[in-house]
């Protein structure tokens, strides 16, 4: 038990050192050597806790995701049915991802090697206090890194309540993700000079149109 606590503390030292570098220099400036120097250990020690640097970056980036995870339930509470909640969830996700593209890339898109689905669960095991304000029904979604699976959960609720047809779920889910990915890539790579607010509004206009066109009846 004592050894497990010590390992957890060491893990946190390295994650928090990485988060400090993100704040001071930016996510693209992270190196194992910088993290080791800031944490006061040698580089080899880090690999006892993290199999690759992408995992370290992922966990540190998660610490900057809290404003999004705190706000998404407030957004969704405004919805009166699953499709409205689905759109509001996307609006909140667009708002934060376009404001902090490097962070969201590290969490949701970056190649994390094998078994990336275990990393979110590992993070919340170490930082359980970050789940205190999250409603129970949202926790399974927050533990899911896969964008397709995250979106599908609320679409399945809409199906159960008769708002959409089963044959339309995959189309709605995949098209909305592709719309976001297209705009996100533009923002991440500075291909278009949109403000985060402009990017969010344009993306939500397209996503809303897709969802409304596929709905069985008008809503909202």
UniProtKB/TrEMBL annotation:
Keywords: DNA-binding. InterPro entries: Homeodomain-like_sf (IPR009057), HTH_TetR (IPR001647). GO terms for molecular function: DNA binding. Pfam families: TetR_N. Residues 31-50 bind DNA. Residues 8-68 form the HTH tetR-type domain. This is TetR/AcrR family transcriptional regulator. It comes from Neobacillus citreus.
């Amino acid at each position: 038990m004592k050894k497990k606590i010590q390992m957890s503390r060491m893990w946190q030292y390295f994650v928090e050192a990485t988060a400090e570098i993100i704040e001071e220099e930016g996510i693209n400036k992270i190196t194992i050597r910088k993290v080791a120097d800031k944490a006061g250990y040698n580089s080899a020690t880090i690999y006892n806790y993290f199999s690759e640097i992408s995992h370290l970056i992922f966990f540190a980036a998660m610490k900057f995701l809290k404003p999004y995870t705190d706000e998404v339930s407030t957004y969704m509470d405004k919805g009166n049915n699953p499709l409205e909640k689905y759109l509001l969830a996307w609006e909140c996700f667009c708002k934060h991802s376009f404001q902090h593209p490097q962070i969201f890339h590290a969490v949701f898109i970056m190649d994390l090697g094998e078994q990336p689905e275990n990393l979110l669960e590992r993070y919340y095991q170490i930082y359980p206090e970050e789940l205190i304000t999250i409603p129970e029904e949202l926790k399974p979604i927050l533990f899911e890194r896969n964008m397709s699976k995250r979106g599908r959960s609320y679409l399945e609720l809409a199906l159960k309540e008769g708002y959409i047809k089963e044959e339309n779920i995959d189309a709605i889910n995949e098209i909305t993700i592709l719309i976001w990915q297209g705009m996100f890539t533009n923002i991440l790579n500075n291909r278009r000079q949109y403000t985060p607010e402009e990017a969010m509004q344009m993306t939500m206009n397209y996503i809303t149109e897709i969802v409304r066109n596929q709905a069985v009846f008008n809503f909202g």
